């Protein structure tokens, strides 16, 4: 399979439910829990026979899940890779068994484009761009460049790498931003707290924090408050995801700006599964929705926010 959208038809009997094996990254964040809910709900609505496995952040478990899906002869395998590398061998086995693979949320770094038929998810580079653009505009008229730190997600995962890439590229064009350090926060509140403590020790006079998800941003907020600072104001805090907790903190003035990364692509995934099984054109890439939020737009969005 190349880079083009492709026609598929596994020739499945219409009266037999399509069988999907899905391996999830884990349960590390509100975003992830919402993503799991979206996938299960969408499968239920289409009466797809879903085998759902949770890898608890462990690539070895995900490889074992994929192997058992191959053994069970599911119709389609989908997974959200914990890390980007190390998938070629197991995905070659899936391909050789004639089982199409769909990547969700995250990507793999293989150069072999025949290992999966479609990927569904957000444009993480552009999320990083948007975060830096907001901070660049905020400090455009500042007398001296703003001191900025970054709290990263898990190592070697697509969102960590690409959000950093987008943030660094746009920050480099913004003369008023000086990114002085970064620390991993593992997508969790506790990880965000630990990262913020470390960063604060080396950079006590911070102007802004870019936390790559809401949980880590909320962890940073609690450390900054304990240090007697006024998070949301100084330092400004920008996060990604736009969960209910993130938007509430934005309305409360603890966060300053939030870039949305929608976890609700369960319907897109199930549509691809049905097209693979019963015949249809499958797009090589499906991009999920995004928006940006300040305090006022977060207030508007909160009543309808489901995650
Ligand atoms: O891969 C998406 C990222 O993973 C989300 O932004 C983060 O919250 C999650 O854990």
UniProtKB/TrEMBL annotation:
It is found in: Cell envelope. It comes from the Bacteria. Residues 22-279 form the Periplasmic binding protein domain. Keywords: Signal. Gene3D superfamilies: 3.40.50.2300. CDD domains: PBP1_galactofuranose_YtfQ-like (cd06309). PROSITE patterns: PROKAR_LIPOPROTEIN (PS51257). GO terms for cellular component: cell envelope. GO terms for molecular function: carbohydrate binding. SUPFAM superfamilies: Periplasmic binding protein-like I. InterPro entries: Peripla_BP_I (IPR028082), SBP_2_dom (IPR025997). Pfam families: Peripla_BP_4. Belongs to the bacterial solute-binding protein 2 family. This is Monosaccharide ABC transporter substrate-binding protein (CUT2 family).
């Amino acid at each position: 399979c190349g880079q083009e959208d492709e026609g598929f038809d596994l020739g499945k009997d219409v009266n037999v439910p399509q069988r999907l094996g899905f391996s999830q990254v884990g349960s590390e964040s509100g975003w992830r829990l919402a993503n799991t809910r979206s996938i299960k709900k969408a499968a239920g609505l289409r009466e797809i026979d879903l085998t759902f496995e949770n890898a608890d952040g462990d690539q070895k478990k995900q490889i074992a899940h994929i192997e058992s899906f191959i053994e069970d002869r599911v119709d389609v395998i989908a997974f959200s890779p914990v890390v980007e590398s190390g998938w070629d061998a197991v995905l070659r086995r899936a391909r050789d068994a004639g089982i199409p693979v769909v990547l969700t949320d995250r990507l793999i770094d293989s150069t072999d484009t025949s290992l999966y038929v479609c990927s569904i998810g957000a444009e993480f580079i552009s999320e990083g761009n948007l975060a830096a653009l907001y901070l660049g505009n905020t400090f455009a008229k500042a007398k001296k460049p703003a001191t900025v730190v970054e709290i990263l997600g898990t190592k070697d995962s697509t969102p960590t790498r690409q959000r950093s890439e987008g943030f660094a590229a746009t920050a480099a064009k913004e003369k008023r931003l000086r990114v002085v350090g970064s620390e991993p926060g593992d997508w969790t509140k506790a990880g965000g707290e630990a990262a913020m403590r470390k960063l604060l020790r080396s950079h006590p006079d911070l102007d802004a924090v870019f936390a790559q998800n809401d949980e880590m941003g909320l962890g940073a907020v609690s450390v900054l408050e304990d240090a007697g600072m006024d998070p949301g104001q100084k330092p400004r805090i920008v996060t990604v995801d736009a969960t209910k907790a993130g938007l509430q903190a934005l309305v409360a003035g603890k966060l300053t700006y939030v870039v949305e990364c929608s976890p609700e692509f369960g319907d897109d995934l199930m549509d691809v599964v049905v097209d693979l099984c019963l015949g249809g054109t499958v797009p090589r890439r499906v991009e999920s929705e995004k928006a940006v939020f300040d305090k006022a737009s977060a207030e508007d969005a909160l009543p309808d926010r489901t995650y």
